[in-house]
Amino acid sequence: MAKLQAKYGQEKEYLQAVQEVLESIEEVYNQHPEFEKAKIVERLVEPDRIFTFRVTWIDDKGEVQTNLGYRVQFNSAIGPYKGGLRFHKAVTPSMLKFLGFEQTFKNALTTLPMGGAKGGSDFDPVGKSDAEIMRFCQAFMLELWKCIGPDQDIPAGDVGVGGREIGFLYGMYKKLAREYNTGVLTGKGATWGGSILRPEATGFGALYFTQHLLHKAGKDIQGKTVALSGFGNVAWGAATKAKQLGAKVIAISGPDGVCEIPAGITDEMIDYMLVMRASNRNKVEDMAVKFPQLTKFTPGKKSWSVKCDIALPCAFQNELTGDDAKELIANGTWCCCEVSNMGCTPEAIHTFQSNGILFAPGKAVNAGGVATSGLEMTQNASHISWSAQEVDDKLHFIMQSIHEACVKYGTQPDGHIDYVKGANIAGFMKVATAMLEQGII
Fold it and tell me: Three-class SS of residue 440?
């Protein structure tokens, strides 16, 4: 860590992600001198390669705009690079390195053969028209297409990149590559190679994992109150499945504030979350305007200010701070599962763990999204399409397997389960073993 601090001192998110993993695996790593001899950690923390490129496009006013695009291919020890693309004004190399590093272990946990990668741009989709988003996606793919392929690197969606963007990106890829290779991107439309349940999969998988965690602790999600952040694809899927499992979603939030739903979110509200996401306004207040009798909007507040049993951060990294964690605990919250990548700060995680709160990290909780992307890749390679039941059954099995791996590696001498340590060790052992067996490359 000292060497990395000296080398990448400004890359705070990346250093935070690496430190969490190294602290978790230290004891196990030191039990394997062969890992140290091969310098597995020194190699594992550096990406295989990083592509940085200029993206030039024309807005609706006819003015030329310039953004930066990136693809971080982090590790391919257990399979081709796999990870989403993020379009957000805050995107930096540090953010994408942290996400690619996390993705490496998350993908290892899924039981599927996928390496870790991440990419994106500092392009801000908020307020952009469909035509502007299309032109940006086409310009982005013009630079990226030579670096990806179904057995090389398979991007997917992430923050700011949903089915619409994947469609625009794939259309340009197909034109440039001159081949109909649907397996090069995941999160595609259902009529041209996309998997049933892929849009819902991250949120659905997160709730399946949460359910296993609660059952292991002798609890049930039925009738419990849930506060979640965000209103994009991930939050939408989480709200949908939480309601199906009998929980009551009482808060969603956005950059502008929190929308409380005292009686619990309705199916109509869940459907409206998709409208809000597609509007590119990024305002949760729209929900309160649409359903004024059932909601209460408070500007400048987070969902963590609302009294709840279970907190599910679904929006962005480090969105739940130490102070937020203290507020949740004071309000009686007893479980927090990260659905966003690294959604909690180290202070928040420490606060939860030291107060006996059930806590699980994003790399385990939200792995259902990339797992279903892996299932989409399988369907594309076989030129078949599975039913919703088949995909859901496989997603159930994968999330159960991830929970079992966390329990196996995270159970402490006193019987307590450290899900952070369990997830990190399980993912690390798989990747490190593959690296060792493939030689010094």
Answer: coil
Tell me if residue 378 falls in helix, strand or coil. helix
> Catalytic: 118?
yes
**Both structure tokens of 17:** 């992600």
Per residue in 72-131, pLDDT tens?
999 999 999 999 999 999 999 999 999 999 999 999 999 999 999 999 999 999 899 999
Query: CA-to-CA distance for 313 and 295, rounded, in angstroms?
Result: 20
For 247, phi then psi, to 5°, come to -85, 165
Instruction: Find, among 14, 108, 123, 115, the residue nearest to 341 by Cα.
Output: 14
Residues 82, 97, 106, 118: which is the catalytic one? Answer: 118
H-helix or E-strand containing 56?
A: strand 49-58
Q: What is the pLDDT of residue 418?
A: 96
What SS3 class is residue 325?
A: helix
Alpha helices in 250-304 (DSSP H): 267-278, 285-290
With residue 86 as reference, give the H or E element that holds it: strand 81-87
pLDDT at site 278: 87
Backbone angles phi, psi at 51, to 5 degrees: -100, 130
Averaged over 332-339, what is the pLDDT?
97
Distance CA 162, CA 140 (A): 15
At 251, the amino acid letter reads: A
Crossing angle of the two packed helices 93-109 and 367-382, in degrees rounded to 10? 70
Residue from 427, 412, 423, 425 nearest 362 by CA? 423
Q: What is the CA radius of gyration of the chain?
A: 21
Closest CA to 418 of 426, 406, 428, 401: 406
Between the alpha carbon of residue 134 and those of residues 62, 70, 129, the distances in Å are: 14, 18, 9
Q: Is the dihedral of CA 405, 409, 413, 416 positive or negative?
A: negative
Q: What does the longest C-alpha to C-alpha distance in the chain come to? A: 65
In order of 83, 89, 116, 154, 428, the CA distances from 79 in angstroms are 12, 30, 8, 11, 14
- In 213-267, at which residue ranges do the beta strands (DSSP E only) sit? 225-228, 248-254, 257-260
34-65 pLDDT, tens per residue? 999 999 999 999 999 999 999 999 999 999 99
Nearest to 317 by CA among 23, 35, 62, 13: 13
Q: How many CB atoms lie within 10 A of CB 53?
A: 16
Global model pTM greater than 0.90: yes
